């Protein structure tokens, strides 16, 4: 329930527009009631052969409601869509604002693309919260009030009867059916997930399936799951069909009961006979308002589930706290750490323990070690994606916790193994680093990153959209774009995080030459598990299980015959 | 909106559909009966001053009709769903079969997510088409006719009003609907692009932060969403007009009928009972047409999905004509010999492989070396019969490979792809893919040979730990060893191995290499090599460039030639040229 209230609060900035849309929805149904009841009155009255003049009001009324119905329907649709789109925009901004301070530290668990697309569709689901969850019951309540007032003009008995059937059709039936269908729904979700997983398997794993002759087996398996799904859907159809026909049944029973109750009143003269047809048509025309309520419960559950997932993310506290006082940026860029310790999970093992290192300005330091040794953690701490618990990191003699994270990141360029390129033009992707860059600056970095040949071959040069029309970038091209981006940023500190991993040997060499260009005149920190080309580094730090195991130059470390020497020997055996 | 091929599918369930339509007509008759009874009861009370007990019989009839109507409407939905269900499950299986028949190479152009979506959501979208739209098309034609049949003898004017407005509804629906639909569809495209943008921003959040651009995005997102709202509403303002016209036609003609009837009643040209009956029927007359309109969108989605489904089903299957089904003559010794084999992928004119010839002797290890795009993978795919050569011959022990049954031939081959795929299931089941009838002991033995038993035993549930999508994530090195275990279990005489390019850390790398050496021992091996250490072990090396074998021989011979091989090796070593 609290999720529901939070959701209402989230959409509340648009309450005025929503009320207008609800009012229009009410007028749409109201016009239909007006049209049919006035028509019934018109012909009932006419049957008593009055003069045509006496019918004029009714005739005008009939025509008015006939047009009003269509016009109100139009306006209602227009206004409610306007509200829906405003909501979507608001929801996106809200969610992004909540998410921005959390990235990437708090989102590590949700890192897979799957979960992110889940989030996006959750936000999409919520946009229906007004249109399909809030509005229909509000319209129904207004109609109920209208009709109760209407029937109370004739006999109080009728209002109770109407109220009873209205509530049965609008609330009790849909709720009952939903409760009954809940188990089915859950089974359906499970079977669907199973089917999805199987289909993903059979397409992504097709090579193995065919190479290992498993085609028949997997087809039978999918067929079996599909059969299960179909039988569940059959059961659901039985239930939903029942719900729909019960809805109609309730309406007609209401009509029937109103007749049975009114006929004696007509006989006794308590109700004028000319109104009998009006009372009957009042029922038929007003139950339109409860027709959509069964769906409302469905959308309510869907919205609440989506909201719960989103709230669970937005409720997370960011890991990094900003300093209260703004401080100035350091003017020298040597890096050193003192007794630096960090653990992702406060009680669990240290990801980094008691690290002491010093990189002079313009120095080149490599950090090596097996995966899980703590290399990426070091980068996360330097970029202040996480805050360390013990010790400290100094940049130009200043503790980085005193700096605004944004200012700190301005000083650091990163080229990582997996570079995220946005679905826009190559140019836009480069400009990310410096929106104000001139054409000359762009051409210069493109040239220095050895991208010019490649870009010239593209149909629209650097205005070509990435990923459009089947145009895909190779790993080497992606990395060179990342390098160009880093060149454009022109930050004094450079972090290379496995920047050439996953590239084949020839491409790796090409990318390395662009990286050499990038490293000129910057304080460089290179993280790698491949031990080639380390002779050029001023210093090598060997991490092992979060501890600094060794440090020194390539030559020194080889002479020491420790961990580095063993890793080097191993990699030589494999690669040569 | 009536798709020919979908109608072909509908024929298969015509019994159900006929039943659905008959039940719909039944409902139509019940509606008319209900209106007649209601008109009679009210008229008797209103004009003839009858009491409740006098009209009781009429009321009981009314109650009966009401109950029957509910029952029929329930049956209609259940049966309509049955019809759709049959078609859905048949099409889903047809799709899967077709995609699997295309094989990994021909299906490569299709994206996994899209295909899976087509087989699940796409197929589901057909339900509305078959269960609701198609019966409704028939009913929209039949029920108004049925009602006219009752109206015309009673009152010509009302009949004419109905008769002339009715065709206007489908007319406007088509006229405005098509155009508005086009606009609406375009808007939905923009909409999905917008959510793609949002997803892109979320995925790139870390990158945005590093460049200090993440806070700007709040404004960008708000601006894009708002622009979208404005343009969309501009379009919808017009698109909703179609709904306005439809609604207007139905309500105005109900109003016209009511006024016309009223005036005739005044002059006593029609009895009240008949007039009220007509008034009750007027909205019912338009209802099936309006329902058709409201199902138009769902049907549209169905037709769009169907187009995609048939598009995939129409992808031509690789030619298998003239291919034999002979059993593979094998005593565990395979001698493969290629003569001038060529292959061109469909849609390109550049051959991927040109006149390639080589011998693979029993027990020999042949390595394929060359820059990416040289044709190494094509050779593996040809040998696995994922594709058939466009020229030349591939022979096994003197028999043309095409004479053999593809499935039977693949039993002789263990294939280790570059990125082995782990299926959703236990580790044991994943290894068991190599030989489904294998016992757990055999699986464990294979895992031991692949150097995988240690990490598997450390998993929370050992061999029964679920892996794959949603299961425990295995590292690259672990997944590779599971794949090697598969190959050990299959124990095939020929191994085709596509080495991983991504570096593992040295310790893991060593384990994988050891396992591979064990696997290669005593088997005939074709190896797509990316590592010098494996290339050294080969008995014979084929150097490929742009689809041709440019050099072949042993390592030392090739080095001495100072050609492409020499250049490649230098690059691998990381030495300066």
In short:
The complex is a heterodimer of chains A (about 575) and B (about 575). Chain A contains 19 helices and ten strands. Chain A is elongated and about 115 Å long.
SS-derived structural category of chain B: alpha/beta
The domain count of chain A comes to: 3
Stated plainly, the CATH topology of the largest domain in chain A is called Rossmann fold
Secondary-structure element pattern of chain A, one letter each: HHHHHHHHHHEEEHEEHEHHHHEHEEEHH
Transmembrane segments (chain A): 20-43, 55-75, 129-151, 158-177, 249-267
Keywords (chain A): ATP-binding, Cell membrane, Membrane, Nucleotide-binding, Transmembrane, Transmembrane helix, Transport
Protein name (chain A): ATP-binding cassette, subfamily C, CydC
GO molecular function (chain A): ABC-type oligopeptide transporter activity; ATP binding; ATP hydrolysis activity
How are the SSEs placed, and which strands pair?
The complex is a heterodimer of chains A (576) and B (577).
Chain A lengths: L1 H10 L3 H32 L5 H48 L13 H14 L1 H25 L3 H49 L1 H6 L3 H54 L7 H11 L6 H22 L20 E8 L9 E8 L4 E5 L6 H8 L7 E6 L2 E2 L5 H6 L1 E5 L9 H6 L7 H10 L3 H6 L17 H15 L3 E5 L7 H15 L3 E6 L10 E6 L2 E6 L1 H7 L2 H13 L1
Parallel strand pairs in A: 3-8, 3-9, 6-7, 7-8
Antiparallel strand pairs in A: 1-2, 1-4, 4-5, 9-10
Chain B lengths: L3 H8 L2 H35 L7 H51 L5 H43 L1 H10 L2 H36 L1 H6 L5 H51 L5 H43 L21 E8 L9 E8 L4 E5 L6 H8 L7 E6 L2 E2 L5 H5 L2 E4 L8 E2 H6 L7 H10 L3 H6 L7 E2 L8 H15 L3 E5 L7 H15 L3 E5 L3 H6 L2 E6 L2 E6 L1 H6 L3 H10 L4
GO biological process, one term (chain B): cysteine transport
Membrane topology (chain B): Multi-pass membrane protein
InterPro entries (chain B): AAA+_ATPase, ABC1_TM_dom, ABC1_TM_sf, ABC_transporter-like_ATP-bd, ABC_transporter-like_CS, ABC_transptr_CydD, P-loop_NTPase, Type_1_exporter
